[in-house]
Amino acid sequence: NYEETNTFVNPYIDNPSDFLFATGAYGFHLSANKRGEVTELTLELNRPELIERRKERIDLIRLLADRIVGEVNQNLKKLLIKEVQKEIADDKPYAMTTRAMFEALPN
User: Fold this and answer.
1) What pLDDT, in 10s, does the model give residues 69-89?
2) Which helix (H) or strand (E) holds 89?
């Protein structure tokens, strides 16, 4: 029996950004969003080991982003951007947090 307010957010079916938001390596439920809140609290989305793994992914994306900013070769720059896009795709671990970090960076 599917209950809208008490069901976990399923990243394979749902868009996690409809229920949760990321700031740095942390993930939080959107205000007044029961499914996000149930997911965050029950799965302990901010437990230390998850934060550390998210931070590792964020650090990888930041290294690529730094290379993009400093790259003068436009062909290489395009390839690096494609690499980042692959690394922040929905099928990658911690996509919501890495995508949020990358999108927050200045162009």
Assistant:
1) 999 999 999 999 999 999 999
2) none
